[in-house]
Amino acid sequence: MSRRLSMQDVADRQSIAVFRPRWRFGSYEIFSVKPMEEKLEELKSRLRDIEQEMSKPEVSRDQKRIRVLNTEHAHLAPIVQKYDEYRRVTREFADAGELFKSERDPAMKEMLSEELQQLELKEEKLKETLLVMLIPKDPNSGKDILMEIRAGTGGDEAALFGAELMRMYTRYCDIKGWRVEIIEINTTEIGGYKEVIFSVRNADAYDNLKFESGTHRVQRIPTTEAGGRIHTSAVTVAVLPEAEEDEIQINPDDLRIDVYRSSGHGGQSVNTTDSAVRITHIPTGIVVTCQNERSQLQNRESALRVLRGKLFDLELQRIEEEQARLKGKHVEAGWGNQIRSYVLQPYQMVKDLRTDVEIGNTGAVLDGEIDPFIQAWLKEQVGAMGT
Fold first, then answer.
1. Angle at 224 between CA 220 and CA 225, to 5 degrees
2. Which of 34-48, 76-90, 223-237 ranks highest by mean pLDDT?
3. pTM value > 0.85
């Protein structure tokens, strides 16, 4: 039986809802209830303005403006929907509290006490959800992404783990209902991936997966190990926002484009025509290859997509480093930092090294259940807002 609330409990709880100056989220004090609700009311008003603007005939004919409004609408609508649910729950709690205070029948008070506790838990969960949703959006929020998985130290074992990470992310996207498109795969003879590049198409992909960039380390006895010794291997993951052509201008004179005969899976023309493409961006030295498509033209377009993403990421890093320099802060270069450890032998555990979240069910993690790591890191960002 859950604890029965007293009249003083309800009175205290209701006064907290009105006067408590700050919320606590984990170990951080974030911001007061009133400013949060004011912000949410502003977002609700902004959503109404967007919907009114989108209904105007002159706006509907402006494709660029409609694209901007659609992106903002897609971001705001779920927040406003969750806020409306939060307000409904707070009203229900207030109404149940009034009934609890005036009720004299013990059985009814017991029932109302349990209802109040359930509503309080629901309200707290909605608060946490809203806090995460109110994290300031990255300018690239809503973009499709490119993900690159590359085998690092460990040879064939690292390549095998790269294939497992590819499956993990593909399963995660399947669970979310996001579309995955393979752009380039470089395989080993035993089925591993030296490198794989794929796109994820969904407005939520970048916000959820951008923090997956970094080094993923695995510890286990490889299938290639005859002596039963435990090996440690590493795979690097890069998450790049897809850049539009008007966001990254590439000078054709800066490109060296080579074509050659494909050697991997593709269409009927693979191994019979020079359909594979290698593009070198001379100023930066970035090299991108693609042979996964059926034609040279398709491979060229796919390679340019990846090149734009990498150049866009370079520009984002440059801006971040410049902003950090002006603020006197240090920024880790690149995306080579270790973020997660997958221990599969002698015991089983996956640990995120940034949040210290640990999961013992390694099979579930490698089957795509990585939301606990992603949500914990998002909450860390909420905490950082309060410091």
1. 65
2. 76-90
3. no
Instruction: Tell me, yes or no, whether 123 and 148 share the same domain.
Output: no
Rounded Cα gap, residues 371 and 242, in angstroms: 22
Distance CA 209, CA 17 (A): 34
- Residues 226, 94 share a domain: no
Which letter does DSSP use for residue 228 in this model? -
Nearest residue to 246 (alpha-carbon basis) of 63, 61, 50, 69: 63
Interior/surface letters 175-214, b for 16+ CB within 10 angstroms, e for the rest: ebebebeebbbbbbeeebbbbbbbbbebebbbbbbbbbbb
β-bridge mates for residue 149, sequence order:
196, 237
**38 and 129: one domain?**
yes
- Cα distance between residue 178 and residue 241, in whole Å: 15
Quote the CA–CA distance of 256 and 280 in Å, as a whole number.
Answer: 5
CATH number at residue 166: 3.30.70.1660
30 and 91 share one domain: yes
Domain annotation covers residue 338? no
Per DSSP, the three-state class of 84 is helix
Dist CA 17 CA 124 (whole Å)? 11
CA-based nearest residue to 377, from 236, 218, 209, 240:
209
Own/partner pairs, 120-126, CB within 8 angstroms, 24+ separation: 120/13, 120/93, 122/89, 123/86, 123/89, 123/90, 123/93, 126/82, 126/85, 126/86, 126/89
330 pLDDT above the threshold of 70 = no
pLDDT in tens, 118-141: 999 999 889 878 877 877 667 788
| Residue 127 domain boundaries | 7-133
Tell me how far apart the alpha carbons of residues 106 and 349 are, in angstroms, rounded to a whole number: 49
Could you read off the pLDDT of 168-216 as tens digits, one per residue? 999 999 999 999 999 989 999 888 999 999 999 998 899 889 889 999 9
Pairwise CA distance, residues 26 & 356, whole Å: 14
- Are 105 and 212 found together in one domain? no
Residue 333 lies in a domain: no
| Structure tokens belonging to residue 61 | 């004919």
**Domains held by the chain: number:** 3
For 321-335, what is the mean pLDDT? Answer: 55
Contacts of 292 (CB under 8 A, 6+ apart): 182, 183, 184, 185, 264, 265, 266, 299, 302
Amino acid in the structure at residue 57: P
